[in-house]
Design a protein that fits this description.
single chain; mainly alpha; Arc Repressor Mutant, subunit A; WH_DNA-bd_sf; MarR/SlyA-like; DNA-binding transcription factor activity; Winged helix-turn-helix transcriptional regulator
Amino acid sequence: MTPPTAPDPRDPIARVQRELLTVGRRGTARVRREDEALSVVDRSLLTFIQDNPGCRAIDIATHFQLNRSTVSRQLAGLLEHGYVAADEEASGGSRGIALRLTPAGSRAFDQSTRTVLDSVARRLEGWSEADLEAFARMLERYNAAPDE
């Protein structure tokens, strides 16, 4: 069996992948360093729930392309900490429990968001408004592309 060849470090796709990996690792390290209450995974789930009140675990799993059992385990911690609760008004049927942020979840999410935004803003200091707008549009375009 032939071992896989390393990507050419000058290849733009390899460079994008390497930089995205660095962004993710730095985010994880920042959470540990700043003793954040919420992990990167927690933040991603709370962001989705806040943006999609009444969503269910299956909706989260579909959005992030994860197994439902993985999402259920991740949600269990948020439920245990009181950051997420069942949305009794939106629940019903056989599709699972509708979720909402609790007041404690909203407070933790807001605090974490301020910390993360401050960190991102520091890294982007000196960028022009046009550069920031272009970067945001490119990231949105990248994340909107379907995975096949």
